[in-house]
Inverse folding.
């Protein structure tokens, strides 16, 4: 009922097949499998008494990171448990973590040059190099600071000068020596 896939790389498709045996004395009919949009599932439709069936699933881990827990709900004709829930959990890691993914600067009249810090963490066994950050909007600056060479960096993002009221955005990019995460 619970499968822990352990550790997988974010972006991979993680597959698992739940296998079960019909311990009842009547044909077990599975009429549906419900899961979030990141999980696709197929299933054995009818399982005779004493026979086994399967619910293979595939989890698309793109855009996920850290601990995850997902539920897959089965609809069947079992009178004692008509909606069993299968649990699927594990940890997803990224070669280079960027935290937070989006930096928001809350600029006020009292703090017109407020800044934000973004943490870059290399989770690969080999060290990486990181280039100076580039902003696509000259209204913002980005400064790279090495915390632990090859492993941990910080990017300080700030307005270059006080900004007028309203919203402004910039994309900050850094190039790395990692073939897994080159930008």
């Amino acid at each position: 009922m619970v499968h822990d896939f352990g550790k997988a790389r974010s972006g991979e498709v993680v597959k698992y097949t739940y296998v079960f045996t019909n311990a009842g004395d009547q044909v077990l009919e599975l009429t549906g499998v419900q899961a979030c949009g990141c999980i696709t599932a197929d299933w054995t439709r009818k399982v005779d008494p004493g026979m086994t069936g399967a619910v293979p699933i595939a989890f698309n881990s793109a855009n996920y990171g850290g601990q995850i827990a997902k539920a897959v709900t089965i609809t069947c004709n079992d009178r004692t448990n008509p909606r069993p829930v299968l649990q699927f959990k594990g940890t997803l890691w990224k070669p280079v973590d960027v935290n937070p993914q989006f930096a928001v600067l809350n600029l006020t009249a009292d703090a017109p040059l407020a800044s934000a810090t973004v943490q870059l963490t290399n989770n690969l066994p080999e060290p990486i190099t990181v280039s100076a950050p580039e902003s696509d909007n000259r209204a913002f600056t980005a400064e790279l600071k090495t915390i632990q060479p090859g492993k941990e960096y910080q990017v300080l993002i700030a307005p270059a000068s006080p900004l007028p009221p309203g919203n402004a955005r910039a994309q900050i990019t850094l190039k790395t020596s990692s073939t897994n995460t080159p930008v």
The chain has a mean pLDDT of 92. The longest strand covers residues 66-76. The two ends are 39 Å apart (CA to CA).
